[in-house]
Amino acid sequence: MALKRLGQILTDLGLIDEEQLEEMLSEQEARGGELLGRVGASLGFFSDEQLGEALAEQWNTVFVTLYDKQITHSLVDIISKTMAEMYRVVPLELNDNQLTIATADPQKIQIADELRVFLGYEIHVVVATDAEIDKAIEQFYSGEVDTVESIVEEMEDDKDLAEASKSLLADGPIDLTSAEAMADSAPVRKLLNLVLLMAIKENASDIHLEPFESEFKIRMKADGVLQEMVPPPKHLSFA
User: Fold this and answer.
1) Is-contact 35 127, C-beta < 8 A?
2) Neighbouring residues of 194: CB distance < 8 A, sequence distance ≥ 6
3) Residues in the chain with pLDDT values less than 50
């Protein structure tokens, strides 16, 4: 089934008429292809909430308000502050293997695709306004700092991770259960997601994960230059 055009939905909802739609299309071209809905809202033809409801109808999902939503710490652990700001999404709920996220840009379908790859969850998208997305990120991620340095410190303080690493570094066969526990730990997932996000942001062509006898290096190549990141703990090479 073909996706219904946003302009047609806005017209059907009685939010704009044909003349206003023509004005929006002309202004969109003048602005270099800015999203049509944002053009119309900036012209005062409809509110951000009305735009959100139209986008939800277009993408066969629901429009939500975020002012009364509470995000648990476990959801913040899944989508870090860096990821929330980069994709402009807010995690709302996790049911089994389905993660519900709110976005003001459901038409950017690569968001759901990339988060599915990064996180390993099926992604269900709902729509909220730009202003509420910004406010929710500021509210729920206040005090959160996502840097390689902070995540490395978290790894060093993680007792379960330290215990698993001791088992792996001991003489004898590798304990696969300990290796799996390390790979699935929150700090390891955070670090890998942050590295991937930084690589995307910098348009990196390569990411090098290099375990050595006494250290573990992460480097990425951007514009032909290999940049070394803050080294994680040596035992991460088992993850």
Assistant:
1) no
2) 80, 82, 146, 147, 148, 151
3) 146, 161, 164-183, 233-239
